[in-house]
Design brief:
Layout lengths: L1 H10 L4 H45 L5 H11 L7 E9 L11 E3 L6 E11 L10 E21 L7 H12 L7 H8 L2 E3 H11 L7 H6 L2 E2 H12 L4 H13 L4 E2 L5 E2 L15 E3 H12 L4 E5 L9 E8 L9 E4 L6 E2 L3 E14 L3 E14 L3 E8 L7 E7 L3 E5 L1 E2 L14 E2 L1 E5 L3 E10 L7 E6 H5 L4 E4 L7 H7 L2 E6 L7 H29 L5 E16 L2
Parallel strand pairs: 8-12
Antiparallel strand pairs: 1-2, 1-3, 3-4, 4-12, 4-26, 5-9, 6-7, 10-11, 11-14, 13-16, 14-15, 15-18, 16-17, 17-23, 18-22, 19-20, 21-22, 22-25, 24-26
Helix pairs in contact: 2-3, 5-9, 6-8, 8-9, 12-13
Protein name: Putative Flp pilus-assembly TadG-like N-terminal domain-containing protein
Pfam families: Tad
């Protein structure tokens, strides 16, 4: 009987559910605590991120007061629980080559970025049964003020010679230019707004470009670009606009893409904005873009007797390729890109005649061949100060262009365009007669290993787009005069020995008279190329200290 009762009890399952439920209740509550409380904490964390974003933006508006502004922003939010606020000032580098987590560098003296960290408890509900009343949550946000500077490197056109410029630009473009000196003066004295030009280019070239980078990437004709420049000059300089339109009608064919010359920075992805930030000298713009669009980078000019004081003037000019990722104009907030001028080689042969020299007599000619080679000048952004209105400014580091100059003959001028190899130079035959020749040779180093030099542009210099110059330690203002003062003259005698001291002295004197004429010629040529021996002109044409934005 007892055994039968036990068997029935074992088979009876009517009370099993209640027992199982009672045993599983702690586990069910634990899962509920996990699901509900973790979900609540996740929602609270998202809300806290919004609070951190707002606090970072508030603090970055005035980094000097970062901690107070961040705390005030959190207090104004009405967050129901205590929040620990830590605001850290620093520098933020907008450089895609730097890992996002490494772009913010803490610095107690920084004035452009703030990182705000918030920590607060998130309340629990089911977890309270197990004694866990809250879960700590934390979020971080970084905000930085927009800082931009627009700068360029090149050389001013110090001297104007309408005949030489017409000959050079005509040879460069395969056209026939006939602008007056007044036209060139108008272009050299006028700055044009870069973004206004790009806006106008959309119309003159019938572009469907959405962004400024699209405009820069598009292939446009030279005349379309020159007409866009003229449109951008309308209203600010009528004479320069007229000269530009005249040039547009005289320069036909040829196409160009501006993306190798201009780095628009953050404006590349924008379809508008930027006007007033970048100003470019009109003459420098024309010369540079026509060089880039030229079918050949080497031109030979025979100016005849058009240069005052000379009976014959020949000039060979070769322009080297710009290094990759080295624009001429840049908008940046850090040390990239490095902008550069073009490489250049210039060879001139000038001659004066009808001279009377001892020993060799009257009607003698003196010819002076001169070779100049210039590497690229460089500039990069070093810093932008947006801390106060009084201290606003931009710091640029620049290097002048190293190179060489020589009184020497280039027997094969086709070598000039080969920038991968040195040009072969030989002694210059300065006097060439049947009986006696006078040869000469002189060399000048324009600086080989130049350090970066610092240039500071205050608000006034930026507003006026005032250029500042860096010079190499061996830079000279008058290359020809410096070479002539050190030339080694050697007589080459055919026949009997003759007293030649007076001849060499007379030749040296004539070269001294000739040197300033050659220097004037070189100044015009190098100015048209946007380079100068042993020097670089840098301009900062605009800066912006904008509103703070979230960066990480």
């Amino acid at each position: 009987m007892k055994n039968l009762a036990m068997k029935r009890l074992v088979r009876d399952q009517s009370g099993g559910v209640g027992m199982i439920a009672a045993a599983a209740l702690p586990m069910i509550l634990g899962f509920a605590a996990f699901a509900v409380d973790i979900g609540s904490a996740t929602l609270e964390t998202r809300r806290l991120q919004g609070l951190a974003d707002a606090a970072a933006l508030a603090a970055a508006a005035d980094p000097q007061q970062a901690q107070a502004l961040a705390q005030a922003s959190v207090a104004e939010s009405g967050w129901p629980r205590a929040v620990t606020v830590v605001a850290t000032r620093g520098d933020y580098t907008r450089d895609a080559a730097v890992a996002p987590g490494a772009r913010f560098t803490p610095s107690s003296s920084a004035t452009d970025a703030v990182r705000v960290s918030l920590q607060t408890p998130s309340p629990t509900y089911f977890a309270r049964i197990f004694g866990q009343r809250s879960i700590p949550i934390a979020r971080t946000a970084t905000a930085a003020r927009e800082r931009l500077a627009a700068f360029s490197v090149g050389s001013r056109l110090a001297a104007l010679n309408g005949g030489l410029l017409n000959s050079y630009l005509s040879a460069l473009t395969g056209s026939s230019l006939s602008l007056s000196v007044m036209d060139y003066n108008s272009l050299a004295g006028a700055d044009v707004d870069l973004f206004a030009t790009l806006d106008a280019l959309r119309t003159t070239a019938s572009l469907n470009a959405l962004t400024y980078q699209d405009v820069l990437d598009a292939r446009v004709t030279r005349s379309q670009l020159l007409n866009a420049l003229a449109n951008a000059l309308d209203g600010s300089n009528a004479s320069a606009a007229g000269a530009m339109r005249t040039m547009a009608t005289q320069v036909s064919g040829g196409s160009i893409s501006l993306n190798t010359l201009i780095d628009p920075g953050t404006f590349g992805s924008q379809a508008s904005g930027g006007r007033g930030l970048v100003k470019v000298n009109s003459m420098a713009f024309v010369s540079t873009v026509l060089q880039l669009a030229a079918p050949s980078r080497q031109v030979a000019l025979d100016l005849g007797a058009s240069v005052a004081g000379l009976v014959s003037t020949k000039v060979w000019i070769a322009i080297g390729e710009r290094p990759a990722q080295s624009p001429w104009i840049a908008i940046s907030d850090n040390g990239t890109p490095i902008i550069r001028t073009a490489q250049a080689r210039i060879y001139t042969e000038v001659q004066v005649g009808n001279l009377s020299l001892p020993v060799v007599g009257n009607l003698v000619a003196i010819k002076l061949p001169l070779f100049v080679e210039l590497a690229s000048a460089e500039a990069r952004l070093s810093g932008i100060d947006c801390s106060t209105q009084a201290s606003r400014g931009v710091t640029i580091e620049a290097k002048p262009n190293p190179g060489q100059a020589a009184i020497a003959a280039v027997n094969n001028t086709s070598q000039l365009a080969d920038f991968q190899h040195p040009v072969t130079l030989s002694n210059a035959k300065i006097v060439d007669t049947l009986l006696i020749d006078v040869e000469g040779r002189a060399g000048l180093n324009l600086g080989q290993s130049e350090p970066w030099q610092t240039l500071r542009f205050d608000n006034a210099a930026i507003t006026a787009a005032t250029p500042k110059t860096v010079s190499s330690g061996s830079a000279v203002q008058s290359v020809a005069a410096s070479l002539v003062s050190n030339v080694d003259l050697t007589p080459v005698i055919i026949g009997l020995p003759l007293p030649l001291g007076g001849l060499l002295s007379a030749v040296g004197s004539q070269l001294t008279i000739l040197a300033p004429l050659v220097d004037g010629l070189l100044n015009t040529v190098t100015g048209a190329l946007g380079v100068h021996y042993g020097q670089a002109d840098v301009r900062v044409t605009g800066m912006r200290c904008g509103m703070a934005s979230l960066v990480a």
